[in-house]
Amino acid sequence: MRRTNASKPACKQRSQPALTNKEAATRAALLKKTTEELDAIMASTRKSKYSKEMRVGKVVGKYKMGKFVKFEGEGDSLSYALDDAKIEQESHLDGCYAIYTDVLPEDMTAVEAVESYKRLMRVEQAFRNMKMVRLELRPVYHKTDGRIRCHVFICMLAYYVMWHMKQRLRPLFECDGTGKARKHTFDSVMERLKCIRKDTVDFCKAQSDIITEPTEEQNYIMNLLGIRL
């Protein structure tokens, strides 16, 4: 479940039943482990340098189930109980993700809010590609402000070119498989295009340029990109 800092849910979407069952089973297993360790602490009479509050705090912190547990008293009179109301409330969100926004309904519908949230993933991917995956914006080794600005500008320009390449390659990606059956990615396309080379051959004091003959797949990619050798 994902949320933004806002007050009212814009939309809630049901996921696959398998995910619903998985989340419910995971919560049940964690609650079971939490209650087993809490019961052991409550029943223990041995002396410890750690207080009972510290020990139970460590348990709920380890399993992240503190929001479902209510504690009363302190020291030897400390007791706990599961908050069934919160557990029931949480179960209604199993297999769902909820998006919260403070935008007024007349300014943005629930569906538009969800689509806007999903588009944030593209921004995150752009920063990731620029910083460390392909364009390697960082680290910056330049020492003057002007050179740093030029370095960042070139990286931005490179991402701009890459974005347009992805748009033109969309037919290639759309007809591809999914998961392990997927054949084409932007990286694989670049690797295929790298195989096209231009070499200068010297023979009997004569020079000639030889360009690799593109394969059928390479020709298709270049046609999508609008490239001619």
In short:
The protein is 52% helix and 14% strand. With 229 residues, it is α+β, with helices and mostly antiparallel strands.
Give a description of the structure.
It is a single chain. With 229 residues, the protein is an alpha+beta fold. Among the domains are: 17-94; 179-225, no CATH class. It has helices at residues 17-43, 52-63, 84-91, 110-133, 145-168, 170-174, 186-194, 216-225; strands spanning 8-14, 69-72, 79-82, 96-101, 198-203, 206-211. Strands 1-4 form a two-stranded antiparallel sheet. It has a two-stranded antiparallel ribbon with strand order 2-3. Helix 1 (17-43) runs antiparallel to helix 2. It starts with 7 loop residues before the first strand and ends with a helix.
SSE pattern, N- to C-terminal: EHHEEHEHHHHEEH
As a percent range, the share of strand residues is: 5-15%
Distance between the termini: 49 Å
- Mean pLDDT comes to 82
Q: What Rg is obtained from the alpha carbons, in whole angstroms?
A: 29 Å
Instruction: Give the structural class.
Output: alpha+beta
What's the total helix number? 8
Low-confidence segments, given as residue ranges, are 1-12
The order of strands across the largest sheet is: 1-4
**Share in helix:** 40-55%
Beta-strand segment tally: 6
Largest sheet: 2 strands, antiparallel
Query: What global shape is seen?
Result: elongated
